Amino acid sequence: MYLSAKPVRISNGGLTVHVPSHGSQFERSVRPYARRDDEHMMEPVTRVEILHGDVANLPPCNFRHSIPAVIFSTAVTGNAFHEFSEIIIPLFLTCRHLRSQLKFVTTDRNASWIQKYSGILNRLSDYEALNLDDGSVHCFPGAVVGLRYHDILALNTSDVPAGYSIREFRQFLRESYDVKIKNVHEIEKLQKPILILISRNHTRKFLNEDAVVELAQELGFQVVRAGTDAMSNLELLAKMLSSCNVLAGVHGAGLTNEIFLPDGAVVFQVVPLGLDWPSTHYFNIPATAMDLQYLEYKIEPKESSLSEAYRLDDPVIVDPGSVLRSGGTKQRGLCISMAKM
């Protein structure tokens, strides 16, 4: 992350930031994505060159702005977990204290991502995200290149300029999507508690999903199956989840939507073989910080479809973590068959 309190000139589609300097000239580069410690995630992120040079040699301004720019990449998109953990929450950490007086400049521009999260972006900035691909030079009184990042779906209050926590972020989301319900006590008047079941079509899916739904209904739940289509419209999804008592699903990006649940709601995660660590750190620990109740079910080897393809003494079954650590690919077809939920 790079911060300039000096005036800057941004050119080359947002990929070059010129900073006036009366001293020695130097340059550095920043890839404006939050996970700077993960080389795999950073690979598709284009570098932004920051050039400190003599004022006389700076490119002339085509457009002048009175508020600072925040430059970030939208190269790593398409997965809700990474989008929230590594772009949306870092944007909140970086920008919320500026009180919407900033302009976003996106690199590796993804117009569909910007549209998908327009409700959040419009809440963080009073201005549309700039597209500088026309070759023009934009001048700003300051700039931030890259985003703050604390941890997985996390905000560390002591490290935020205005002291924001995950609670303030969840309230910010409610305001962004005009969600009124804040806790489960406000939905107790419903005749039946609502359970939203994340329905997956490929890997890590319930092979007996109909039986799971039937059992939940017998237990008194009104069950809503949420597939890919339901997860794509954030405005509708936020309102749907705000009236939900339980969000249930197998470990995967869909559980990131726990972030929209009302306080006191339950997150029920099914943990596949070998995924204890990510299940705990991606969704268990964040759920607790969000004032949610967390439950999990760790499947037994015989409940996994892997038991049909491998012997029960195969490393894929008895020590799947070792297979993952060695770069094995045997778990890619992991599915789950559960008798009860």
Automatic annotation (TrEMBL):
Gene Ontology CC, one term: Golgi membrane
Sequence ranges assigned to domain Glycosyltransferase 61 catalytic in this UniProt record: 171-267
Membrane topology category: Single-pass type II membrane protein
Compartment(s): Golgi apparatus membrane
Tagged with keyword S-adenosyl-L-methionine: no
Keyword terms, alphabetized: Glycoprotein, Glycosyltransferase, Transferase
GO terms of molecular function: glycosyltransferase activity; pentosyltransferase activity
PANTHER family reported for this sequence: GLYCOSYLTRANSFERASE
Protein name: Glycosyltransferase 61 catalytic domain-containing protein
Organism: Eucalyptus grandis
